[in-house]
């Protein structure tokens, strides 16, 4: 029964990932906790596996199209990897109720970002084929990369809802480049987070493979249909769903337990 539930909800997360991009993974942890019946410490590494694989699949065509700023990705990853391990260390010392409340707050932040259009208006960096103004970029990119890493380790989220605004608004990266760069950063941070959470933890690999496999397959299927749908409207309704799930998490954690 557990495997069937994992397959079903993995497919649902995959459809959301394919239609909406990385934001769909924000529901992976709640699905694993409330539907599959895992605790947060088991759900986080599985979520990171789904996030990492889905982001890797999405990053391949972006890399082929040259839509990745490799140096910025390297800076974010260099700041994010140690921060991811730090976030994991914090996560292991917090009670599940605190993790769930914190995750609900992250969900609200992610939903708010989905409702807000991100325009390519940033001018903080001179980012182009000729190079980057690191004097202006470094003070912004290093803290942003560290923050995303901490959130990745703490809650098992990819952090694309923070990375893209940081790249576009704070650093002045073109949106198409920001999306590809963000996916690459998410892959690296998710891999670091997944490995850091495996230490001393018993993983149900059958559930993990079922959930992650279904999510990956269905993300590819849904991704092929995304161009025919009004994804902006879907993203708006998905943001409302995220708010509803965040409310449920808070109510269940505070009042029902």
TrEMBL record:
<keyword id="KW-0812">Transmembrane</keyword>
<protein>
    <recommendedName>
        <fullName>Probable membrane transporter protein</fullName>
    </recommendedName>
</protein>
<feature type="transmembrane region" description="Helical">
    <location>
        <begin position="177"/>
        <end position="198"/>
    </location>
</feature>
<dbReference type="GO" id="GO:0005886">
    <property type="term" value="C:plasma membrane"/>
</dbReference>
<keyword id="KW-1133">Transmembrane helix</keyword>
<feature type="transmembrane region" description="Helical">
    <location>
        <begin position="237"/>
        <end position="256"/>
    </location>
</feature>
<feature type="transmembrane region" description="Helical">
    <location>
        <begin position="205"/>
        <end position="225"/>
    </location>
</feature>
<feature type="transmembrane region" description="Helical">
    <location>
        <begin position="144"/>
        <end position="171"/>
    </location>
</feature>
<keyword id="KW-1003">Cell membrane</keyword>
<feature type="transmembrane region" description="Helical">
    <location>
        <begin position="72"/>
        <end position="91"/>
    </location>
</feature>
<keyword id="KW-0472">Membrane</keyword>
<dbReference type="InterPro" id="IPR051598">
    <property type="entry name" value="TSUP/Inactive_protease-like"/>
</dbReference>
<feature type="transmembrane region" description="Helical">
    <location>
        <begin position="44"/>
        <end position="60"/>
    </location>
</feature>
<comment type="similarity">
    <text>Belongs to the 4-toluene sulfonate uptake permease (TSUP) (TC 2.A.102) family.</text>
</comment>
<feature type="transmembrane region" description="Helical">
    <location>
        <begin position="97"/>
        <end position="115"/>
    </location>
</feature>
<dbReference type="InterPro" id="IPR002781">
    <property type="entry name" value="TM_pro_TauE-like"/>
</dbReference>
<dbReference type="Pfam" id="PF01925">
    <property type="entry name" value="TauE"/>
</dbReference>
């Amino acid at each position: 029964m557990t495997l069937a539930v994992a397959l079903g909800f993995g497919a649902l997360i995959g459809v959301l990932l394919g239609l909406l991009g990385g934001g769909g993974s924000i529901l992976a942890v709640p699905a694993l906790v409330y539907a599959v019946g895992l605790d947060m410490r088991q759900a986080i590494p599985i979520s990171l596996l789904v996030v990492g694989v889905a982001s890797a699949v999405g990053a391949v065509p972006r890399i082929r199209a040259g839509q990745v700023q490799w140096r910025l990705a390297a800076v974010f990853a260099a700041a994010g990897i140690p921060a991811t391990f730090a976030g994991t260390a914090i996560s292991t010392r917090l009670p599940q109720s605190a993790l769930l409340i914190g995750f609900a707050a992250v969900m609200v932040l992610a939903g708010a970002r989905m409702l807000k259009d991100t325009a390519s208006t940033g001018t903080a960096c001179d980012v182009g084929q000729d190079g980057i103004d690191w004097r202006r970029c470094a003070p912004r990119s290093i803290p942003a990369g560290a923050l995303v890493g901490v959130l990745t380790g703490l809650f098992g989220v990819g952090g694309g809802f923070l990375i893209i605004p940081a790249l576009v608004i704070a650093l002045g990266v073109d949106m198409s480049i920001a999306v590809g760069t963000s996916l690459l950063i998410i892959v690296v941070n998710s891999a670091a987070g997944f490995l850091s959470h495996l230490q001393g933890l018993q993983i149900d690999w059958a559930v993990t493979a079922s959930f992650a496999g279904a999510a990956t397959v269905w993300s590819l299927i849904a991704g092929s249909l995304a161009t025919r749908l009004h994804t902006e409207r879907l993203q708006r309704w998905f943001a409302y769903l995220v708010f509803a799930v965040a409310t449920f998490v808070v109510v269940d954690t505070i009042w029902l337990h």
